[in-house]
Each structure stands twice: as structure tokens, then as C-alpha cells.
Amino acid sequence: MGVACRSMTDAIHGGMKPRSHEVTDGPSRAPARAMLRAIGMTEDDFSKAQVGVASSWNEVTPCNMPLDALAKRCKAGVVEAGGFPIEFNTIAVSDGISMGHEGMRASLVSREIIADSVEAVMHAERLDAFVSFAGCDKSLPGMLMASARINLPSVFVYGGSIMPGEHHDGRKLDVVSVFEAVGAHAVGDIDDDELLAIERAACPTIGSCAGMFTANTMASVGEAIGMSLPGSASAAAIDDRRADVAFASGHAVMNLLRQGIRPRQIMTRGAFENAIAVVMALGGSTNAVLHLMAIAFEAGVELELEDFNRVAARVPHLADTKPHGNYHMVDIDRIGGVPVVMQMLLDEGLLNGEEVTVTGRTVAENLALLDVPAPDGEVIHAFDDPINEVGGLAILRGTLAPQGSVVKVAGLDFDHFEGRARVFDGEDLAMEAVLADRIEAGDIVVIRYEGPKGGPGMREMLAITGAMKGAGRGGTRPWSPTAGFPAEPTGSAWATWHQRPLTAVRSP
């Protein structure tokens, strides 16, 4: 029987072509097949599942530069597993490069564009499944949102983190070190040569920011929620294991097609609780709250702010990682990766082990196959010797934020403060005050009109808080519609973010 006369039954044999049969089956689809032949499809390929390989590769940022090679390796895995891969790209912006100026207004918007663009290609081309690749902060949740929304078999692959740099005095450096150095330079604590030396050493390789910042937090979420292969979050971008993960993910997505497992069967309420638990134990980014809420919305899972407090109350903070601690993601990888934390939580009854993952197996089954090592006690503490008895994030409510706000409590040694409020309408005015050394120890910096409506764009404000910390006035990693944080003489910091309601809608 010629290709033009193949039946729909043949085209969707085994459920492997739930959508692509619409472009390959029957006489009326001859024009589509003609176009597909031009991209390299042969007669035998028309009966194969068509698998999208969605990559946010670009040369805008080192975060996404590994993705092109990884996508190619994934395609080889899809081919070996019997599918036909079709690669396409979406956008990505660099938070690190966009930080502290007008460009940051586009950052959060890019998350939505990424999800929308992947959905558009998958819908238009009638692809059957996809593997997504991301590296920088907003591209990770954007890809996971796309998976949840489209609900076709999919696997998420992280590009891996950058290696830490090294200062001439032996200190480990990352991009946050440079933001802090800007503040130290502004108040005269370091000179031009020292600032340049830190700038040159901080980012020695390709990959995403090295600490437990947004990208590595969301990579850990991808693994904990079941959308990435076990043990895949922690390897550095330059590690050869990244290529192995990409190849295996090509096999995994074909297996999901055969088993009929879709993202909403993986990203359940229990899986989101697992993700929150891992974020709490790792002391992950406050942005995890924002992104998990968005992913849950796409997955049709009800997730509330108080769910984060509920999990934090029973899950301790265990990982001594930057920015609050001493170690980077490569150190977590060195001692066993995210599975070390997941195994501890499972053993303590704090992880839902029965949740299905992209392997087709459950969380508990995956961990049993990994032979997970015990925590080393330094990078990741034992459960009975936590850094803090509660998780690394908390949701606060009060007179200034009656609808809630997010605080990163990881690394704090105090639970209240008093001080003089210094109110600035926008990040730029606040940054001017910091660089002019007009912020004093004990001041509480309040930045208004930087939310999704008042900004607009909800600019992330690492530039100002990094500068404050470097200047000896405190700092943390923020993302703030309206933010308040004290300037401590020791350089310790406390901050609240995502405060609701926004100043732009007349918050208290």
C-alpha cells in the first residue's frame, strides 16, 4: 500500500501518532508530506511518532549556550527509540545581563512568550510529544508551563550550571559576587583593579548561575516534580553526563508515548508538594513560589500560598548553598545531587513516593535504582542536624501585605527587626541612594511600583540588593513588586518579595 493510501489505523498504530497522523495520513495530506520530505523525512518516517525538540538555545547568555549540542544528542535518542525528531527554538533573555536597567522589564514576560511559542508550534505542526531544553531563569518554568498546558508526553532537560570562578585569594565566585563587588566599589572598599579581577573570574564557563539561584532551584523542581530524569539537575553544563541525560531523555519521551503517560498525570497535587519540599530543603529561590503557582495553574492543580508554609513547617532547611551559604550546585552534584535530599525526605515520610515520573516509574522506584548516598554533613546536612528546623522560604502576612508576601529565611539568625523606612518609587532611585552611600545601617529600604502592574514587568532587583550587601548594608536575591529589607552592618539580610496587593492598586 502506498503512503498516500495508508489508513488512519496504521498511522496511529500503538497510539504513537496521536496527532501527527493529521499531517501524514491519506491522499489529502500529500502537500504536507511533500514539505516533510524536504526536511529529510523518508517513506518509512511517515509512520513514526513526530517528536518536538524545543530548545531555548541562543548566544544571548552563557546559560543557554549548552542547549544546541544537547538538543542534537536528544534527537539521536529519539531516532534510536523509533521516533522522528523535529527541532525548533524559542526565545530566552538573560536576567544577569538585563539586571538593573530597563531591559529587566522583559524578563518575566519572556516566561509567558516561551510557553506560548512552544504551544503554538506543537499545536500547528501536530507533533505527538516533545522534549524541552532550558538554561536561564525564566526559560525553565516557561518550558514546564508549556508541558502542563499542552499535556502531551514530554520530558524537561536542564542545560546545567556554570562552574564557580575563583578569586586570587582562593574564594569561590559567581555572578552574585560581582553584583556585591559593585557595592563594595561604590563605598570605596575595593578599587577598580579588584572589581575588574572579580568580574573577569566570576563566570569561567558556559552554564546557568552557579548557586541555588532561580535556574538551579527550578532545575531541582523539574527533577522533584517528576518531569526530568532522576539525578539530572545537578551536573555542570560542561560535564559529559549532560549529553547522556539528553540522549536518555529522547528514549524517555518515546517510552511515555508508548505508555500513554502525560504531564498532568505526573504533575499532580502530590508532585507539587514534592517540589515544594525539595525547594524548602535546598533553601531555594523565592521565585520558586511564583513559578510553581504558574505551572500549577497550567496543570489544573489548586496551589495556594499557604501550601508553602504548610510544607515548610515540617521540612527543614538542609543545603548550605549560595547565596545564603557556602556551596554551589556543583558541590551538590559532587556529593550525590538532588536525590540525596529526596531520599532523606522520602525516608522521613515527607515525600510522596508513589508519584509517577517521566521514567514511567514512581519517585520511590527511581530512588531505589539510584543507590543514593547519605548526606555528607557539610554541603547537605543530615535530617537530624538541619541548618534550620523549618524550610528555607516562608509566606508572611501583615498590615503591609494582607494578601501575602514571600521571604527567604534560609541563612537568617533573627526573626524580627526595627528600623527607619526609606521609601523609593522605583528601583533606579533606590540604586542611586545605595551607590551614593546614603543608606545607613538599620535603614529599611522600601521599593514601590515595581510590580507586574506598577512597573510594569516585575523587575528582579539583584543589582540593588547585591550592591547593598557588598557595601555592608545587607542584601539578598530579590524579585520585588514592593520590597522591604533592612540594611544590616554585618551584611546579613532579610527581605520580603511579591507583596500583595501591589502599590499600583493602592496597597497599604
Written description of the protein model:
The protein has 20 helices and 12 strands. With 508 residues, it is α/β, with parallel strands linked by helices. It has 3 domains: 281 residues, Rossmann fold, CATH 3.40.50.2300; 34 residues, no CATH class; 109 residues, no CATH class. The protein has a 4-stranded parallel β-sheet, sandwiched between helices. Helix 8 crosses helix 20 and helix 10 crosses helix 13. The termini are far apart.
Topology diagram in text:
Layout: H1 8-11, H2 21-24, H3 30-38, E1 50-55, H4 67-80, E2 84-89, H5 95-98, H6 107-125, E3 129-134, H7 139-150, E4 154-158, E5 165-166, E6 172-173, H8 175-186, H9 192-201, H10 214-224, H11 241-259, H12 263-266, H13 269-282, H14 287-299, H15 305-312, H16 329-334, H17 338-347, H18 363-370, E7 393-396, E8 405-408, E9 420-425, H19 427-435, E10 443-448, H20 462-470, E11 483-486, E12 496-497
Parallel strand pairs: 1-2, 1-3, 3-4, 9-10
Antiparallel strand pairs: 5-6, 7-8, 8-12, 10-11
Helix pairs in contact: 4-11, 6-7, 7-14, 8-9, 8-20, 10-13, 13-14, 13-15, 13-17, 19-20
Short description:
This protein is of the alpha/beta class and 508 residues long. The protein contains 20 helices and twelve strands.
